[in-house]
Amino acid sequence: MIITRTPFRVSFFGGGTDLPCWYNDNKGAVLSTTIDKYSYITCRKLPPFFEHKHRIVYSKTELIKKISDINHPAVRETMKFLNIKTGLEIHHDGDLPARSGLGSSSSFTVGLLKTLYALKGKIVDKKKLAIEAIHIEQDLIKEDVGSQDQVAAAYGGLNKITFAGKHQIEVRPMTIGRGKIQDLENHLMLFFTGLQRYAVEIEKEKIRLLPDKKCELNSLCYMVEEACDILNADKPRLNDFGKLLDESWKLKKSLSGKVSNGVIDDIYNVAKKNGALGGKILGAGGGGFILFFAPPEKQERLKTALKKLLFAPFKFESLGSQIIYYGESGG
Fold first, then answer.
1. Does 2-175+317-326 match 178-315 in CATH topology?
2. ∠ at Cα 134 (131, 138), nearest 5°?
3. What burial letters (b/e) apply to 28-61, b meaning 16+ CB within 10 Å?
4. Contact present, 280 and 291 (Cβ < 8 Å)
5. What is the reported pTM?
6. In angstroms, rounded to a whole number, what is the distance separating the alpha carbons of residues 68 and 72?
7. Confidence of residue 222 (pLDDT cuts 50, 70, 90)
8. Alpha helices in 68-125 (DSSP H)
9. C-alpha distances in angstroms, 101 versus 28, 107, 135, 162, 223?
10. What's the CATH class of domain 178-315?
11. I want to staple 288 with a disulfide (CB 3.0 to 4.6 A). Which of 9, 63, 100, 128 is the partner?
């Protein structure tokens, strides 16, 4: 039996510039971190005593004889990609709900890849894991998704990630010291809006509008550099990070009318009136988790103002996808 743990991510700046239809011809960059909320994959070889050959358990249970009949697209295409022959039982569990803006689907794909490679007795490096997860989601499943989530889940940590072509991906860790990282953590608050959405639908709309949004996307990419400069500065000016988040959110909303809605706008306005300097809906938009930057002394006031939302404390993590158990079971 193998168990993997793959982190979800929080993206600060540059979202949208990680779409291949953008970065294949333009510069793409994001600043993101993985957090201590995870996707867990448990896998074992299924003994040959059942009518089905594969048992796949997530929000549904699939009892399947042929891989091609698996409904879950990431499971089906990943097993086909790795040419899995043996019968498998695969279980998925997550710390947070799907379709909520934290890159959960890519964390699942990265974790499943790592799990199935381990089942074959192979260890793959982080870049290979990220590139193959991107290939599965974009080329095999043919989803209109970006490339940052797969990279973040595979590598882990607080990173500036740049994109300059299909396999031209560079990951530069932000080496700013534990003190600065803790200070940044202490200024961040995560709330669940309760609204779940399909990111692919929103990304399709962004892609359709992309030819008219070059100025906005270039600005979003440039903000990554600004944010890195703020974090790397000798003198603390962390509040500028929050104010930059506010500017970035305004730009992100302009990419598509589906990024925000009346409910999200109301939440954001309440937060700004109660201590938040900036924030953003995570992921493609439309719902899920919303992140705010607020000085620690104003956070209780903000929590009270948003008491109808579920508050989700978190910390940064730095390991990326990991095997947390490897042992004999079944088969």
1. no
2. 145
3. bbbbbbbbebbbbbbbbbbeeeeeebbbbebeee
4. yes
5. 0.94
6. 10
7. very high
8. 73-81, 104-119
9. 19, 12, 20, 20, 20
10. alpha beta
11. 100
Give the pLDDT band (50/70/90) at residue 165.
confident
pLDDT tens, position by position, 242-262: 999 999 999 888 877 777 788
* Six-digit token string for 228: 């890195």
Alpha carbons 115 and 121: distance in angstroms, whole number: 10
Length of the chain: 331
Residue carrying the six token digits 């990431």: 74
Domain extents in the chain: 2-175+317-326, 178-315
pLDDT, tens only, 93-135:
999 988 788 999 999 999 999 999 999 999 999 999 999 999 9
Rg, C-alpha atoms of the chain? 20
Architecture of domain 2-175+317-326: 2-Layer Sandwich (3.30)
Q: How far apart are CA 275 and CA 26, in angstroms?
A: 36
The token pair at 288 is 């899920």
Q: 157: which residues sit within 8 A by CB, 6+ positions away?
A: 33, 34, 173, 174, 316, 317, 318, 319, 320
- Strand, coil or helix: what is 184? helix
Three-state DSSP state, 262: helix
Which amino acid does the sequence have at 162?
A: T
Enter the tokens of residue 312.
Answer: 């989700």
- Say what the pLDDT of residue 5 is: 98
CA distance 7 to 110: 10
What contacts 234, CB < 8 A, 6 or more positions away? none
